[in-house]
């Protein structure tokens, strides 16, 4: 079973940037799996933010973050990233690193966008 650990969440002002990281441990088949970021805001459903295929050839984004967020992965480091630019208050949420095929989830990292 893969273990996913996120980091990088913080309090940031509107218009600011953050980069989230997620390290996958015990991941012999890490390169074969699509990885994703989900988020959940208070009182809201969890939503898929972005995903990246094992070879990085297929990348998807939610419409709400397209053009502002960038997902990437470094398979040599067993790590995925979410670069978040032009942050808005509505981006405030707990962000989770996920491996959808195995239904593995990280513990989450809090992102708060507020002035």
Polypeptide structure, described:
There is one protein chain. By secondary structure, the chain is mainly β. Helices cover 0% and strands 49% of the residues. The protein is built from no helices and eleven strands. It is globular and about 40 Å long. The termini are far apart.
Task: List the keywords.
115 residues; mainly beta; seven-stranded mixed beta sheet; four-stranded antiparallel beta sheet; 49% strand
Order of helices and strands: EEEEEEEEEEE
> What oligomeric state is this?
single chain
Q: Strand content of the residues, in percent?
A: over 45%
Largest sheet properties: 7 strands, mixed
- Low-confidence regions: none
Distance between the termini: 40 Å
Proportion of residues in helical segments: under 10%
Number of strands: 11
Tally of individual helices:
0
What is the CA-atom radius of gyration, in angstroms? 13 Å
Mean pLDDT: 96
Class inferred from helices and paired strands: mainly beta
Q: Rough shape?
A: globular
Brief digest:
By secondary structure, this protein is mostly beta strands. It contains no helices and 11 strands. It is globular.
Topology, please?
Blueprint: E1 3-7, E2 11-12, E3 18-25, E4 35-40, E5 47-52, E6 59-61, E7 69-74, E8 79-84, E9 93-99, E10 104-105, E11 109-113
